[in-house]
Design a protein that fits this description.
Purple Acid Phosphatase, chain A, domain 2, 5-stranded mixed sheet
Length: 232
C-alpha cells in the first residue's frame, strides 16, 4: 500500500483483535467501512483467548485481497509463525514453544486448527511487515526503539513487544507513531484511545474482554470509535 492510496481517503487503524471476530465485524460496520474507499491498517495480534482464531485469520486474509488494506505483525502472530516454521524440528519446536508459553493455554488448539490450513495461514503470517510508514505516521504493533539514530533499525522483538523506553520517551521519528500492544487502560486508566506526544496507543483491551478500538484519520484529524467485547 503506497502513500498515494492515502490521498483524500479515510484511514482506519485497528489493533489487538485477539480472535474477537464478531467485534471486528461490528466495529467495521459501526464506522461504515467501505473497502473501495477507506484505507485499513491492522496493527497485529489477531489471535487470542477466543474460539474464532482461525476464522479471524481467514477473515483478515480475505481483507488483504484489497490493495488498500495492510496487516502488520504482532507478537502473537510472530510467535505463531515461528512455531509453524520450526514445527518439523525438535530444537526449533522447543525454541518456539518457549515463546508460545508466554501466550494463553488456548494456543495448542489454535495450532491444531492452523495446521489444517497450514499453507495459507503460514503464507499470511509471512507476508506481514513489522511496520507501515507513510508521510504522516508510522504504524507498528508495539513501538520502536527511541534510542536508535534510525528507528527503522528496531529489531523484530522491539517492534512487536517493546514498552519501555518507548512509552515514556519523546521519540525523534518526526511523525506520529500509532501502536497497539499496551492496553490503553494501562496508559491513562481508560480503554479508550490514548493520545500522547507524537504517539497514539489504540489497544482497547479486546484480549481482556474490554473493547475493540478504531482510530480514524481524515483531513480533519483523528477521531475514534469502539465496540465492547460481548460473548454469547
Amino acid at each position: 500500500m503506497s502513500d498515494s492510496v492515502f490521498m483524500n481517503a479515510r484511514v482506519l487503524f485497528i489493533s489487538d483483535i485477539h480472535g474477537q471476530l464478531d467485534a471486528l465485524k461490528a466495529l467495521l460496520d459501526k464506522v461504515n467501512y467501505d473497502a473501495s474507499e477507506d484505507r485499513l491498517l491492522l496493527l497485529g495480534d489477531y489471535t487470542g483467548n477466543s474460539k474464532q482464531n482461525l476464522l479471524c485469520l481467514q477473515y483478515i486474509k480475505n481483507l488483504l485481497e484489497y490493495d488498500n488494506v495492510a496487516a502488520i505483525m504482532g507478537n502473537h502472530d510472530r510467535n505463531l509463525y515461528r512455531y509453524l516454521q520450526h514445527k518439523s524440528s525438535h530444537e526449533g519446536r522447543e525454541d518456539a514453544s518457549l515463546s508460545l508459553a508466554t501466550l494463553q493455554p488456548y494456543l495448542p488448539d489454535l495450532i491444531t486448527e492452523v495446521l489444517t490450513k497450514l499453507p495459507e495461514i503460514e503464507s499470511l503470517l509471512e507476508s506481514m511487515p513489522l511496520w507501515y510508514e507513510s508521510a504522516d505516521f508510522v504504524a507498528v504493533h508495539a513501538g520502536i526503539n527511541p534510542n536508535l539514530p534510525d528507528w527503522r533499525q528496531s529489531t523484530p522483538d522491539e517492534c512487536t513487544t517493546i514498552r519501555e523506553p518507548f512509552l515514556s520517551s519523546v521519540h525523534s521519528v518526526g511523525k506520529t507513531v500509532i501502536f497497539g500492544h499496551t492496553p490503553c487502560i494501562r496508559l491513562h486508566g481508560s480503554p479508550d484511545i490514548w493520545f500522547g506526544h507524537n504517539k497514539i496507543g489504540i489497544d482497547g483491551g479486546a484480549g481482556k474482554d474490554m473493547q475493540l478500538n478504531c482510530l480514524i484519520l481524515t483531513d480533519e484529524g483523528f477521531s475514534q470509535r469502539s465496540v465492547p467485547i460481548q460473548h454469547a
